[in-house]
Design goal:
The complex is a heterodimer of chains A (about 325) and B (about 500). Chain A has about 325 residues and is an all-alpha fold. Chain A is built from 15 helices and two strands. Chain A has a domain of about 200 residues. In chain A, helix 3 packs parallel to helix 14, helix 4 crosses helix 13 and helix 5 runs antiparallel to helix 6. Chain A has a two-stranded antiparallel sheet. With about 500 residues, chain B is of the alpha/beta class. Chain B has two domains: about 240 residues, Rossmann fold; about 170 residues, P-loop containing nucleotide triphosphate hydrolases (Rossmann fold). In chain B, strands 6-7-8-3-9-10 form a six-stranded mixed sheet, sandwiched between helices. A six-stranded mixed sheet of chain B has the order 16-17-18-13-19-20, with helices on both faces. In chain B, strand 19 and strand 20 form a beta hairpin. The radius of gyration of chain B is 23 Å and the shape is globular. Classes of the chains: A mainly alpha (about 325), B alpha/beta (about 500). At the A-B interface, helix 9, helix 10 and helix 11 of A face helix 2 of B. The complex binds adenosine-5'-triphosphate and magnesium ion.
Amino acid sequence: MVDKLRDNAALRRIVALADHREFMILYIIVLGIIGLTYAKPEFLSKPSLAAVMLSLTAQSIIAIGMTILLVSGTFDLSVGSTFALAGTVTAIWLRSGMPAPMAIGFGLAIGILIGLVNGLIITELRINAFITTLGMMGLVRGLMMVVSGGRNISELPASFNAFGQGELIPGVQNPIVISIVLIVVSDFLLRRSRFFRQSYYIGGNEAAAILSGINVKRVKVFNFALVGFLAALAGIIITARFGSASTTAGKGLELKVISAAIIGGASLKGGAGTILGSLLGAVLMSIIISSITLLGIDPNWVDFVIGAALLLAVMADATGRKAREAPG
Amino acid sequence: MPDSPDSQTVLEVRDVVKTFPGVRALDNVCFELRKGEVHALVGENGAGKSTLMHVLGGVLSPEAGEIFLDGRPFGPANPHAAADEGVCVVFQELSLSPNLSVAENIFAHRQPVRWKWPDLIDRRLLHERTGAILERFELQMDPATPVRNLPVALRQVVEILKAISQEPRILILDEPTSSLTAVETGLLFENIRQLKAQGTSVIYISHHLPEIFEIANRVTVMRDGRNVATCDVTDVTEDEIVRKRGGGEVSDRYGRRETPVGSEGFRSEGGRRGEAFDDVSFSVGRGEIVGMAGLAGSGRTELARAIFGAEPLDAGRLYVDEKPVTVRSPGQAIANRIGYLTEERKAQGLFMRMSVRQNCVAPVLGSFANRWGLMNEKAITALAARSRAEFGIVTPSVNQEVGNLSGGNQQKVLLAMWIDAGPLLLIADEPTRGVDVGAKSEIYRRLRALAADGVGILLISSELPEVLGLGDRILVMRAGRIAGRFEADQATEEKLIACATGIGAGSNPT
Ligand SMILES: Nc1ncnc2c1ncn2[C@@H]1O[C@H](COP(=O)(O)OP(=O)(O)OP(=O)(O)O)[C@@H](O)[C@H]1O
Ligand SMILES: [Mg+2]
């Protein structure tokens, strides 16, 4: 009987699933939602949920690219600045009368360009990713301050705002639709596509990846361009959503995104992580934040709790790995 | 004798030069490979064999010279480009991703996909094909097994299969057998013969000359970055090859014990660790060399790591000089004067990005610090210089990064590092892997000298002649247990194989 159960492939899958990081976080999230709803029934109300999801869109879109970077053993600190610059320049171009599709296209191109520059500096000049993207973070944010003159830019054309405020699917705002579609597609691709799988090899053992015939430089540059593109996309979507480009937008976003990815199972050493995991990490963080406000706790605790969550996640991972690696 | 291949040239290397700071690794080397032949490449450590293969495999680009593939100029920019032209290399250093499965490693970025875009991997087909390829080595493991769970020998097999699965026209094997046991080597040769029959040309690098006479059609001897001779294997003898390549003599390689075995220096009683090994009891006398044979995965390395404190023992006691000792970490092991020469020099043994001199003192940093905790750099350099001379480490300077040395020279650094640490028990796990014949004799001499100084040595090796030639006693492990104990004069290769595989003669407990 027991043997039969063990032979059951479906059951084995479920057991294997329980072993995954994603499953653990999902479990915590579900517990959190149940707890919160019990304490504050209004948490499950539509406006409150929509607010949580909306606040997640920028983070989750960028998390896609950041996860792929982390998997390939690197990261990008400049995404928050790219996010702000793309929103700002798109807004400026719109104000100068450029048609919305063109302004959006140019905004995205700027994001890709920043990513390409990051990627090329890191792969061709072999400068470390931390330094390169730290420099880029300051440079891009400075550029944004210069072009915007340090002012928020609002009064954007309605056709553009509709992009962020409309509801392609009735009842769900566009930013949420876009981010969900992107996440589902990219999670699938990172798991199953041959091109994206290469990042796991690179992060797992870069020297070995080169000897295996993987074009490491090309994949890395692509990954940086992708994260730049996604950061710009998120910046433009949020600008449209609020009808205004803010100069403080995206400050600290890079660390939030990296923390979420690490809570979700990615590692700074590379070779591990999934987009679903990073998304769940972000959801967990945002539930923690909303519960602090909803429960009327002093909001000064937010950073403390998020930091603690990150530490707990990596500590759980380290002990788990020790236990797994112990038998020969 | 192997059947004679067509004499059509597929690959020609003309006057290729490659230099590294302080070394002329390839010095106008010429080389020719024919269709369907197995061409052996031999030479001392640092002769430039791997460098030439890196050039052919697209890892390095030469500074001068020409290469022709089928009469057309050939200069792959990267390993990918080389593979596209049908040139696949099994590099001396393993190039696998430990976290990924066997299937994903074999098919790295060539996984079967369903469509061009999105290029989704067809898992079922991937595992099916992997299964078929594993058959070539009579392996029945699950294609989803992560490579990190495999013993070194099987990793090497995966590496070989990765190259073979690309159906190359030219297959380059750089010391493929250095971590294989006899069984796997036999299967490899079987595969090479099949490939040869299909018209594949093979470049085969090995320090193991008998292998060359078994499998190769022609042999090229390299020395100091040059081709000093190419000839049919039927036209040369082992001695002639050894003479051409330079380096030490081979007579009486293993030496002879000159001092009697002293009192018991080390003992393990009932050692057990998980499923890796159980009930392991043995002792090593002061000045005694105990050989340990066994198949890949028989638990020898796990045992060594546990004695060295790198992994905990679940049960059992260890004694040094008949006093019980606690070894819970490598630091404690070193403090109890146990040394461990790991079989995986690259992943676990050496600090590849650090210099030769810094590596030499890694296990004994403390003894080079003065009373304010500052390192005595002069003494370190002196020690490193002495080791370099004593072990014949070929390097332009002791400040060279170990990662830039040739494979065999890295092994010498590892050995120097542990001998300098002054152990009472030295566990040497495959100490001559990837070392040329001359250097091998040198390592044997060092081990003998160490034993003469009263150090007990546990010599783990898959090369039976080595175990038989050096061991005073020989233990055979099978499936995590000591399956046989032999006195050196009673042991033969056949007996050891029978005992290790559990087929035939059976064990002979003494
Ligand atoms: N990346 C590098 N940087 C500096 N020197 C190098 C580098 N790679 C190889 N060398 C040097 O080039 C020479 C040839 O090395 P190579 O690895 O080709 O030798 P080999 O014949 O394969 O030896 P072995 O039998 O030990 O593997 C050696 O002296 C080595 O130290
Ligand atoms: Mg070599």
